[in-house]
Amino acid sequence: MAAVMVARQGRELQRYSDSTGGRVVVGCVPYRVRADDGEVEVLVISSQKKGAAGGVLIPKGGWELDESMDEAARREAMEEAGVVGEIAGPALGRWWYRSRSYDATYEGIVLPLRVTAEMERWPEMTARRREWLTAAEAIARCPHRWMREALQRFADPIGAADTAETVLVG
Fold first, then answer.
1. pTM for this one?
2. Given this model, what pLDDT does residue 170 score?
3. Per-residue pLDDT tens digits for 65-107
4. pLDDT at 89
C-alpha cells in the first residue's frame, strides 16, 4: 500500500456544522490487541502545541466534502499517528466543544480504528510523538474532556448507546 506522505492543507473542502457553524472534525481511537496477553492498547499522539507536556490526544481533524467519515478518520490516523487500519464499529459518539484557538464551537465525531499496520514514516512524524497505552492511561493523560469520554466509551462500550450524543462546551 502506497501512503500519501503529505498532510492535507487548507479549508476549501472543509465541512461545517449546520447547528453551530463551526468545523466538523472526525477522530478515531486507534487500537490493537496484544498477541501475547490479549490486552487492548490505544494509540495516542502528542499535541503539536508547546506547553502540552505529558498530555495526549487522539488523531482528529477536519472532515472534508470529498471523503466519507470513515475515510476522514483513516486519513487523520495516517497523517497524525502513522497508522493504517479499518473502522471497527459505529461512532463512539458526537460531541460539541469550544475551540481554544478560534471563537467557534466544533462538532466532533469519533470512530474506533483497528490498526493493521504502523508506518515508519508519516506526514506529521517530526511534529508528534505516538505512544501505545491502556485506555485508562490514555484517559488519565488526555486534557480534553470530550476525548476522554470517547476513550471511556471505547474502553467500556456497555451503556455507550445510551449516551451516544453529549454536548460539551468549554
1. 0.85
2. 42
3. 999 999 999 999 999 999 999 999 999 999 999 887 888 899 9
4. 93
Average pLDDT rounded to a whole number, residues 19-40: 93
> Grid coordinates in use for 141?
493523560
Backbone conformation region of residue 159, classed left if phi is above 0, alpha if psi is from -120 to 50, else beta: left
Residues 89, 91: Cα–Cα separation, whole Å: 7
For residues 45 and 59, is the Cβ–Cβ distance under 8 A? yes
The Cα-based distances of 138 to 19, 42, 82, 123 in angstroms read: 30, 8, 18, 23
158-161 long-range contacts (CB < 8 A, ≥24 apart) are 160/92, 160/93
Grid coordinates 484517559 are at which residue?
139
105-118 and 24-33: which strand pairing?
parallel
Q: What is the mean pLDDT of the chain?
A: 87
Buried b / exposed e along 124-147 (16+ C-beta atoms within 10 A): bbeebebebbebebbbeebebebb
CA distances (Å), origin 153, targets 15, 41, 57: 25, 14, 15
Homologous superfamily assigned to 24-167: Nucleoside Triphosphate Pyrophosphohydrolase (3.90.79.10)
